[in-house]
Amino acid sequence: MNLSVVIPVYNEVHNISEIIKRVQAQELANEIVIVDDGSSDGTRDILKDMDGKDSVRVILHERNQGKGAAVSTGMKAARGDILLIQDADLEYDPRDYPQIIRPIEEGIADVVYGSRFLGGPRRVTMFWHMIANKLLTAMTNILYDTILTDMETGYKVFRRGVIDGMTIRSKRFNFEPEFTAKVLKRHYRIFEVPITFNPRDYSQGKKIKLKDAFEAVWALLKYRFVD
After folding, report:
1. What CA–CA distance (Å, rounded) separates 28 from 20?
2. Which long-range contacts (CB under 8 A, 24 or more apart) does 145-150 make?
3. How far apart are CA 93 and CA 90, in angstroms?
4. Which of 13, 53, 166, 174 lies at 20 to 30 Å from 148 by C-alpha?
5. pLDDT per residue as tens digits for the range 67-113
6. What is the largest CA-CA distance in the chain?
7. What topology does CATH give the domain 3-225?
8. Rounded Cα gap, residues 172 and 80, in angstroms
9. Is 190:148 a contact under the CB 8 Å cutoff?
10. Dihedral angle at the C-alpha atoms of 115, 121, 124, 125, nearest 10 degrees?
11. What letter would DSSP give residue 197?
12. For residues 48 and 44, what is the distance between their CA atoms, to the nearest angstrom?
């Protein structure tokens, strides 16, 4: 089964080369689809040199639209049987690829979430950010009758067929709850596996804000009742 790694990027000039290096070091990706979402810090100059080399494909958004828009573009362009979403900020470790892909390869899952709250190694920081994640996950479990531990995880892996006919409307970080809602409503088999997590804080460039939590709440409510 061919693996496409989809990487949404926005102003990651200091990290983009390193994350590509780490993904390639796993020797599992048949293609790496990078979607630059209107970066203005020099990221695009680096990506121009990578495009077309070592299975890297670069797609440029003319203006910043949000992570969800970049992920949607990448998913549409990806050619693999399995799609894996990889953030560019080095918070998630590509060395976890074998374990998060395995349930799909074994035929026991359609979707795999890499959970930051199942006991894997993690940097200790940002208590209130963790609380917000847990509350959003609890809301997901109540609304959709499930037992996820980490709805907001950036590591989501799925068979291509999962997104066939699925329209993602969210442009920003509300991609995570919308995708989760639609996967759950379609009764796909979801597995969670523990992953390594090394979060950066806001002084290091973390982009998600408090308003994104409110947008996530609205998305969970909205997509419970509409498609």
Report:
1. 12
2. 146/184, 146/190, 148/113, 148/115, 148/180, 148/190, 148/192, 149/115, 149/117, 149/118, 149/192, 150/113, 150/114, 150/115, 150/116, 150/117, 150/118, 150/192
3. 7
4. 166
5. 999 999 999 999 999 999 999 999 999 999 999 999 999 999 999 99
6. 47
7. Spore Coat Polysaccharide Biosynthesis Protein SpsA; Chain A (3.90.550)
8. 24
9. yes
10. -40
11. B
12. 6
Give CA 207 to chain center in angstroms.
14
Helix ranges (DSSP H) in the chain: 16-25, 43-50, 67-77, 97-105, 127-144, 175-185, 210-225
Q: Please count the helices (runs of H) and the strands (runs of E) in the chain.
A: 7, 7
- Intra-chain end-to-end CA distance of the chain, in Å: 29
Three-class SS of residue 173? coil
- Residue 3, Ramachandran bin (φ over 0: left; ψ between -120 and 50: alpha; else beta): beta
Would you list the domain boundaries of the chain?
Answer: 3-225
Q: Which residues of the chain have pLDDT under 70?
A: 200-207
**Which residue, chain included where needed, has tokens 């997509």?**
223
What predicted TM-score, i.e. pTM, was given to this entire model?
0.92
Give buried/exposed letters for 172-194 (b at 16+ CB in 10 A, else e).
bbbbbbbbbbbbbeeeeebbbbb
In whole angstroms, give the CA distance from residue 108 to residue 189. Answer: 8
Report whether 37 contacts 71 (CB < 8 A): no
